[in-house]
Amino acid sequence: MTLYQIKPKFQARLRPLVQKLAARGVTANQVTLAAMVGSIVVGGLVGALIWLPGIFLLMPVWLFLRMALNAIDGMLAREHNQQSVLGAYLNELGDIVSDLALVIPFVLPFGTGVLPFAVLAVMVECAGLIGPMVGASRRYDGPLGKSDRAFVLGALGLWLGLGFGPGHYGGWIWGVLCLLSIATIVRRVQRGVQEATVARAASSRSTPSTEE
Question: Which residues span the membrane (predicted)?
Answer without folding.
Answer: 21-42, 48-65, 171-189
